[in-house]
Design goal:
5-stranded mixed sheet; single chain; 4-stranded mixed sheet; globular; 11 strands; Glutaredoxin; 10 helices
Length: 302
């Protein structure tokens, strides 16, 4: 009798071990992981934890909406085949319940907008951008793929390219205008990371930012580009000396800020959105907050 009871208990335990994970996957695994507002700081840290480049996205929507549950499941399924460029792992997408946010928390995420749905995209520990309103799943997959640096979608591409060396030389010689030119390769890991950042800034600030892919550019034309009498500042060389763009074997990505045919500043490698914004203000491509306030004051006085 005891032996039969023991066998039954053993069978029950075996069934539990086999069935519980399946049930858990059906109930929990088919939808997004829910987080609280206080968890955003941890998400920010997580997005910067993978080999110097990480990504995370947060879907904000009211749990009181009938559509939210279905959307969560669609987002979960739609994101499963998208791999982060750095980690090689499926991109992280989380759910934040709008109904459980305080008024102050809603203000931080939505500002003065009346929306109750938002998609937040974190890259390298920074909030890259927030999109408001519902997004169709295929469009969301495009955003996830592009922002995670897996592959920049042509539909989201805001940076520009040069057709030939003549177009490059014309741009860098514009009188009193700064040209930002990023030299890189599509096979370069950090080039693709950086592309995510400056592409977003080009979109938000309506800036002409140029990318020169030396792997795609015609070889003869690229040689002419390098032979433009430009000097790479020592801050962006391994020799700690100014070097000629024509002769120096620079690392990519290399960003040059050029005004009146002369390099006035540079960036070696990848930097984040905040740092790039500061650099653009320094070289005069963007106005500082102080400049914007001064402009507003001047307008009011007029």
């Amino acid at each position: 009798m005891k032996e039969k009871l023991f066998k039954r208990i053993l069978v029950c335990l075996l069934i539990i071990v086999l069935v519980v994970p399946i049930v858990y996957e059906i109930i929990i695994g088919s939808t997004l992981k829910t987080i609280k507002y206080k968890d955003l700081e941890d998400i920010t840290v997580e997005s910067a934890s993978h080999y110097g480049f990480g990504f995370a996205s947060i879907y904000v929507a009211p749990s009181s909406s009938d559509a939210t549950k279905a959307n969560k499941e669609s987002i979960k399924v739609g994101s499963e085949n998208i791999k982060g460029a750095a980690s090689g792992e499926t991109v992280s997408v989380y759910y934040l319940d709008y109904d459980k946010l305080s008024d102050d928390e809603k203000k931080v995420i939505f500002g003065d907008k009346t929306d109750k749905i938002a998609y937040m995209f974190y890259v390298n520990g920074e909030l890259l951008t927030t999109l408001y309103g519902e997004i169709e799943i295929n469009s969301l997959k495009t955003y996830l793929s592009s922002y995670s640096a897996e592959a920049m979608s042509p539909n989201l591409k805001e940076y520009k390219t040069f057709e030939d060396a003549a177009a490059f030389k014309k741009a860098i010689k514009r009188k009193n205008e700064v040209t930002m030119a990023v030299f890189g390769r599509d096979t370069c890991f950090y080039c693709n990371q950086f592309k995510t950042i400056y592409n977003q800034i080009a979109l938000e600030e309506k800036l002409d930012i140029y990318y020169i892919d030396e792997g795609e550019f015609d070889a003869d034309e690229f040689k002419k580009v390098k032979d433009s009498n430009l000097t790479i500042p020592k801050a962006c060389t391994n020799t700690q000396q100014d070097e000629s763009l024509k002769d120096y074997a620079y690392d990519t990505p290399l960003t040059l800020f050029i005004k009146n045919g002369k390099v006035i500043d540079c960036i070696s490698g990848y930097i984040g959105k905040k740092d790039l914004t500061t650099k653009l203000e320094t070289v005069g491509m963007l106005k500082t907050d102080a400049d914007k306030k001064a402009d507003e004051t001047t307008k009011k006085e007029k």
